[in-house]
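Check this.
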Amino acid sequence: MHVDGFRFDLGTILARETYGFDEGHGFLDSCLQDPVLSTVKLIAEPWDIGPGGYQVGRFPPGWAEWNDKFRDTVRSYWKGDEGKLPELATRIAASADCFNLRGRKPWASVNFITAHDGFTLHDLVSYNEKHNEANGEDGRDGHSDNISWNHGAEGPTDDPEIIALRERQKRNLLATLLLAQGTPMLLAGDEFGRTQQGNNNAYCQDNEISWVNWEFGEREVELAEFVRKVIALRRSFPILRRSRFLTGEYNADLDVKDVRWLTPAATDMEPEQWQDGHARCFGMLMDGRAQASGIKRPAMDSTALLVLNAHHDVVKFILPEVVGGYVWSCLLDTNVPDDDGGESFETGEDYLVTGRSVVLFALEPEGQRSVALGRAREAFRRMAEQPIPVANPESGPEAERALAK
């Protein structure tokens, strides 16, 4: 039947015994021993509604799990909540605190921002409260704590600044998801900004609230093209989808760390900086020369720098020096989504990171183009030759302003 795999709803119940959850339960073992099931993807929603039902990170090797810690932390960070840097670093590094056990790999963490339950991505940045009146349950249904932010207006608005900020925040959330270590899960429709009009529990709606509108307007096309671009970057740069967990440990043989966490001044984060609740901008430097412990030969992956700025204002970020004779190539800036990147910057140079934005850089030899960057540029060229058509010119920002009125 060409089924790629299975996702098990309320998966904890599959391994529940009278004494609680058993990670060595016969059902879980049977799936991994079966000659067919052991070759497909097995994904658990690692919680149910019974006592001790929350079991994120407890499923055995061979299983992947939905990671709600990633969802909640990323939402909080881009919403502007204080003190989220330490946990965000853990989450975008594949949540080793949960999954780096018993030989499991980073892909075991299924990262997501939204799912079929709850707000869509567009509604996450457009509503502070759920709007489930149409469900006929007097608003009692659906989760009330959505970690959402409407950016100044509840629902549709005709304010161009709010609309622009919402669109950038969507790009920030999607970029964080697709550039993080682990397995990204994208809710269908989020790639073009589908809305459920603030309804976060639309299971009972068979109408415009729950239907997917494929008549793309300009805004939908722009977001979908952005998602294509970020996926192309993820595919082009192996460093963005490592098969091993990042540790931050120093490899004396290679004189590198596989990951460094940087302040805007390009210095390594110190404990007092991690503990600064007001800090909202940092860099994740993934060194492509790093290998597993004990291997004395440097790897050949590209080195990447991911900068995330949840401040409301511009932050001056100094591009760090990693190795002589190299420059930083800007591949992505969520403030300028139409730019295909490629502009080079010297190490030590300042890059002005727009308030509430994500920037991705790759290190390449001065005067040359890396293999990974070449793959990305070729992917961008192919996408330009096959643009997503605008089916409904009357939708998009102008339509939203009209709806608000």
About this structure: Residues 5-234 form a domain with the TIM Barrel fold (CATH 3.20.20.80). The two ends are 49 Å apart (CA to CA).
